[in-house]
């Protein structure tokens, strides 16, 4: 199940012994004072990476669900708003959107914006367009019989969605939702461009100080691999827990 990760990490360490390059792993050796300090500095970026990813995912789900309901509306205008929003946001590169939010929004709205919240706003907006399609597809995958049964019980539209349709749709949407969270984790590395002290920013600063980019960026790769591996495993466990038994 985890073979791709193990193979990649194994290849990375194998390459350290079959090249003429003089590896400087001492820079991250936990048994030395310098290496221990560098290692702690490097992993200290985990907090910002995880924080910005979790907050962005939560906000993106809220926005995405709202945009998805527009697509399910009987109003042509609301459906048009959904299509315009989804197509426009999905067409803008995340880095370009990040730069616009960080440098343009404070000028336009005359407000101050920190690195962290600029990243949260950018990732939430960018991800919401993809999640809107995930939610729309998940809701539409529920059979019409479920809708009719809920309506026959006298439930309102929102009661039907909250009590009948969405709980069933979550099972269908869980795998793509997990994939989108992994996507946010990876895209959070772009926020280092505007100065957020995430894993990538810490690695960049350490490279400037130590002049050993190959070693430091190799560890950065492993950090992201481990982080995403845990997320993927968590999603799989949740899928099994919510899976409907088949007899």
Automatic annotation (TrEMBL):
CDD domains the record matches: TM_PBP2
Classification via InterPro entries: AA_ABC_transptr_permease_3TM, ArtM/GltK/GlnP/TcyL/YhdX-like, MetI-like, MetI-like_sf
Residue ranges of every copy of the ABC transmembrane type-1 domain listed in the record: 46-233
Pfam families: BPD_transp_1
Regions crossing the membrane: 50-72, 84-103, 115-135, 216-238
Gene3D superfamilies per the UniProt record, alphabetical: MetI-like
Alphabetical UniProt keywords: Amino-acid transport, Cell membrane, Membrane, Transmembrane, Transmembrane helix, Transport
UniProt topology in membrane: Multi-pass membrane protein
Assigned protein family: Belongs to the binding-protein-dependent transport system permease family. HisMQ subfamily.
PANTHER family in alphabetical order: GLUTAMINE TRANSPORT SYSTEM PERMEASE PROTEIN GLNP (PTHR30614:SF20), MEMBRANE COMPONENT OF AMINO ACID ABC TRANSPORTER (PTHR30614)
Protein's recorded name: Amino acid ABC transporter permease
């Amino acid at each position: 199940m985890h073979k791709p990760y193990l193979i990649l990490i194994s290849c990375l360490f194998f390459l350290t012994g079959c090249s003429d390059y003089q590896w400087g792993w001492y820079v991250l050796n936990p048994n030395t004072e310098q290496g221990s300090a560098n290692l702690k500095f490097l992993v200290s970026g985990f907090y910002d990476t995880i924080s910005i990813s979790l907050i962005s995912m939560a906000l993106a789900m809220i926005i995405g669900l709202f945009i998805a309901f527009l697509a399910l509306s009987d109003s042509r205008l609301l459906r048009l708003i959904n299509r315009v929003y989804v197509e426009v946001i999905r067409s803008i590169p995340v880095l370009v959107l990040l730069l616009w939010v960080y440098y343009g929004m404070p000028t336009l709205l005359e407000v101050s914006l920190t690195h962290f919240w600029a990243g949260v706003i950018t990732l939430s907006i960018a991800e919401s367009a993809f999640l809107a399609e995930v939610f729309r597809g998940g809701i539409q995958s529920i059979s019409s019989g479920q809708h009719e049964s809920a309506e026959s019980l006298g439930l309102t539209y929102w009661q039907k969605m909250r009590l009948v349709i969405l709980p069933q749709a979550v099972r269908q949407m869980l795998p793509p939702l997990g994939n989108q969270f992994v996507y946010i984790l990876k895209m959070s590395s772009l926020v280092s461009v505007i100065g957020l002290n995430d894993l990538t920013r810490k690695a960049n600063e350490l490279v400037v100080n130590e002049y050993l980019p190959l070693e430091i960026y190799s560890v950065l790769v492993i950090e992201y691999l481990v982080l995403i591996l845990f997320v993927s495993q968590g999603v799989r466990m949740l899928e099994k827990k919510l899976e409907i038994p088949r007899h």
